[in-house]
Amino acid sequence: MDFRLTEEQQAFRDSVAAFARRELADGALERAHRAEFPHGVAKKMAQARLLGITIPERDGGAGGTLMDAVLAIEEVARYCPRSADVVQEGNFGAIRVLAHFATGDQKARYLAPLLRGEEVIAVGMTEPDAGSATTDLKTTATPDGAGFRINGSKVFPNPHADQYLVYVRYGPGVAGIGSVMLRRSAAGFSIGKISKFMSGNDWAPIFFDNVYVPPEDVLLPAGGFKKQIEGFNAERIGNAARSLAYGRYCFEAARRYALDRKQFGRPLCEFQGLQWKFADMKVKLDAAQLLLYRAATNADRGFPAADETTVAKLMCNQAGFEIANESLQVMGGLGYTQETLVEYCLRRSRGWMIAGGSIEMMKNRLAEIVFERRFSQRPPRA
Ligand SMILES: Cc1cc2nc3c(=O)[nH]c(=O)nc-3n(C[C@H](O)[C@H](O)[C@H](O)COP(=O)(O)OP(=O)(O)OC[C@H]3O[C@@H](n4cnc5c(N)ncnc54)[C@H](O)[C@@H]3O)c2cc1C
């Protein structure tokens, strides 16, 4: 066991930090408050090979590790929290599903433009009646010739994406679920009223009215969802890393503020009431980071453990939010304004306690691990 980064990891981390300082620090505040996806940042990141870090080189990625992707999120967030979203979306979730399951032709049409920073992908999973109970989804894929007709709707995805990875039902039960790829231009695909998350990001319901999906756009056939979920504990690491990175950003901002700001003729850092907040925050940051690094390192070694990734997500989501909240308190009225990014990080980190598996669902999963039993959340059968 060694709790230090390797020399290679340190060199990678330093190079990402230099890139973020040079390319992203300027304009970070303004970028955070713009609704549009920062396409310019994505292009720069593609050039710096920060998109597809864990994707094999033969598929256009950098052939790196999950730990590298975590380090990249951490370093980018230090200088520009909004840009850390781009690293996360370029390395976790839908992009890795594509890298894992797409055919060569699908990779050329869908994955390659993402890795070049030219397009944005969104996931259509949640439905009005299928949130935490994901597998209750009703959007259907009905055979039509060699392809399928898609009917149904989704809620909460990014309405401005170029391509959508949509989870569909080919047949009954969990084994009947798979996924297809769609472009926003597909006939019968429409976007409903655009609304806002607390983070400031847009979301909208999306609708499929007999959308035709040719066979070459089927990503996961029936049975694919189960296979994907089993193999993808690692995906939680991206969400966890970003939560914690936002917490750290706020901690650093509050720390600098407490050193500079004077009240009652003394810097804030000399008040014990605030010193203890920093002590508590440091413990949370260190604990969450160790759990995150353990999950990422073991997943890189080929041992992605459901308990480690679940514990890491739970801890990082809670720590990120709580640290952002305490940091805002330390910064008083200024922390509550949009003159700094602390309020932004607080709003963003709140969402990750719900998205990607809520805090409660993570705890349900951990209870099953603790008791080595499955606890069905459904009412008992009559
Ligand atoms: C910022 C953000 C971005 C998102 N982006 C996307 C996206 O891109 N694509 C997409 O498809 N979806 C997206 N979502 C939706 C997200 O996946 C769902 O919000 C999430 O799965 C929870 O579903 P729900 O909102 O329907 O809540 P519900 O499932 O209705 O849950 C409501 C509350 O009850 C709790 N709860 C539910 N079941 C249980 C249980 N068995 N035990 C204990 N507590 C329970 C939940 O934890 C929650 O607190 C996003 C959500 C957020 C907040």
Commentary on this structure:
This protein has 382 residues and is α+β, with helices and mostly antiparallel strands. It is built from 14 helices and 12 strands. It has helices spanning 7-23, 28-32, 39-47, 66-79, 81-89, 94-101, 104-115, 224-231, 235-260, 272-300, 306-330, 332-335, 342-351, 359-371, and strands spanning 121-124, 140-144, 147-154, 163-169, 177-183, 189-191, 195-196, 202-203, 206-213, 218-220, 262-263, 266-267. The strands form 4 sheets. The chain has a 4-stranded mixed β-sheet. Strands 2-3-9-6 form a 4-stranded antiparallel β-sheet, with no helix packed on it. A two-stranded antiparallel sheet has the order 7-8. The radius of gyration is 21 Å and the shape is globular. The relative contact order is 0.10. The mean pLDDT is 96. Bound molecules: flavin-adenine dinucleotide. Residues 122-126, 131-132, 154, 156-158, 197, 351, 354-355, 358, 360-361, 364, 377 line the site of flavin-adenine dinucleotide.
